[in-house]
Each structure stands twice: as structure tokens, then as C-alpha cells.
Design brief:
Shape: globular
Strand order of the largest sheet: 2-1-3-4-5-6
Structural class: alpha+beta
Number of helices: 6
Mean pLDDT: 89
Radius of gyration: 23 Å
Distance between the termini: 86 Å
Largest sheet: 6 strands, antiparallel
Number of strands: 8
Low-confidence stretches: none
Helix content: 25-40%
Order of helices and strands: HHEEHEEEEHEEHH
Length: 248
């Protein structure tokens, strides 16, 4: 018996079947790729953490070369001596601290919950680094980064990234010349008061040789993105101050 394809019921049944088939295929594809996606996220986070503390393949002044994906797990284990999670003012070891979703933790705190703060303690060339993840808002979308500090909360390295900042302007937060400007910048006053770092358009030190002014030179044409970097540094890194006081 021939099927009457002109009936509305045929169109509806066909549409329902197609939705079920396509939905099932998408669900299967997503579940199949999930392990690969998680693995890529792990490697990227570990590369960024290592980059901030100076474990990278940079040679020339403009280089941004991460530890290769085939070596990053071993290098992470070699240089990162502790992974900590700070919660309610107490720090405890957690070997999967790098998997903590900063965006979700910020949302949790905004809704009255307790935010978990991951911190990565690394050692390189006899020096101890404390690498903290930060996250904020740029002009168009999210910006984030990792900042390596010493026990006095002096910046030893930084890595920044973004989701959708303007190419050639705000997107330049992930350029080497901008990230390197933060090296040596202080977050605390001599009295131990947290000041943070401002990406300042009117900065009188464009070569960033002065390291106790709590400022770095702004990116041309990227005021809002720069303000976002300033805000996430001040907001997120200040949360780690109680922990750093315990190091004294």
C-alpha cells in the first residue's frame, strides 16, 4: 500500500523520526568525544600553569611556546610539587585542583556559596612559585589567566587569554610583550595591604621599569579589556591574601 506523503500526519511523523535520529547521533558523538575534550582541557590548563611559572619553550623575545602536549603531563608532575584547594580559609592538597572550574566557583560565590580557590605550588631553579588562576570579563566576553607569584605576592610570570576580544586590540592581552610587563610587579604595599595591579592608560612608565607603582602600561585601543584584566587581578588574587599571610 502506497504511503500518502501529502498528509500532515506523514510530515509530523517524519519530522519526529528525524529529530530522534539526529538527536541520538549528536548525543552519541558528544559522549564519544567527551574523553578527548576533557583531555585537551587538562593539557591546556597544565600548559598555561607551567607557562606562567616560566616552564615553556620561549627563545626569542616574542615567542609564546608552550610545553608540547606529549610532554606536558610529565613536566607538570616534575615542576608542580603541590596542588592546593583553599576553602573557608583552609588549604588542603588535591591532585585534581587543576580541574576546578573557576567560572562555576565564581557563580557559586555570587549566589552565597563557598568558593574553592585552586593554587599550584611549583619549584623551578630552586625557587618556589605560587600559580593562581583568575577569570573576568573583557569587552565582548570572558578573559582569564594564570599568575605566578612568590611568597611576597610579587608577580613572577603571567599568562592571559580571552574568548572573543578584538583582534589587534583587546586580543593583545595574550601577546608576550603585554604578559611580560607584569613580571616583578608587586601586589602588596610595604605594610602588607593588597593593592593589585592596574592596566593604566595614563601610566608614566611605558617601559614598565618601575615595579612598585602597581601599574602596567595599557594596550592601545583596548581600555575596557585592560580594565577587565585589572579587575580580575584585584578581585581574584586578593582572595589568596590570607593564605600568603600564613607563609610569613
Amino acid at each position: 500500500m502506497a504511503v500518502d506523503t501529502d498528509k500532515n500526519s506523514y510530515t509530523i511523523i517524519f519530522a519526529v523520526i528525524m529529530v530522534l535520529v539526529v538527536g541520538s547521533l549528536l548525543a552519541f558523538t558528544a559522549s564519544s568525544l567527551a574523553p578527548n575534550i576533557d583531555e585537551n582541557e587538562r593539557m591546556e590548563k597544565q600548559q598555561n600553569i607551567l607557562y606562567a611559572m616560566g616552564v615553556n619553550g620561549n627563545v626569542d623575545k616574542g615567542d609564546i611556546t608552550f610545553v608540547s602536549t606529549d610532554k606536558v603531563a610529565d613536566e607538570f608532575s616534575k615542576y608542580i610539587k603541590q596542588q592546593l584547594v583553599i576553602e573557608n580559609g583552609k588549604a588542603k592538597e588535591d591532585n585534581k585542583a587543576y580541574l576546578i572550574d573557576i567560572k562555576k566557583e565564581q557563580a557559586k560565590a555570587k549566589n552565597g556559596g563557598t568558593r574553592r580557590l585552586p593554587l599550584f605550588v611549583g619549584e623551578k631553579d630552586g625557587k618556589t612559585f605560587y600559580v593562581a588562576p583568575i577569570r573576568g570579563k573583557g569587552l565582548w566576553d570572558a578573559i582569564w589567566g594564570y599568575v605566578a607569584l612568590d611568597a611576597d605576592m610579587v608577580v613572577q610570570g603571567a599568562f592571559f587569554d580571552h574568548k572573543g576580544e578584538t583582534p589587534g586590540l583587546g586580543a593583545n592581552i595574550k601577546q608576550r610583550y603585554f604578559m611580560d610587563d607584569f613580571n616583578g610587579e608587586r601586589l602588596l604595599t610595604d605594610a602588607g595591604v593588597f593593592k593589585g595591579i592596574t592596566v593604566a592608560k595614563g601610566n608614566n612608565d611605558p617601559t614598565n621599569k618601575i615595579k612598585d607603582d602597581y601599574e602596567v602600561d595599557a594596550l592601545a585601543g583596548a581600555t575596557i579589556t585592560g580594565d577587565g584584566v585589572s579587575a580580575m587581578i584585584k578581585k581574584d588574587l586578593k582572595l589568596y591574601l590570607p593564605y600568603f599571610k600564613t607563609l610569613k
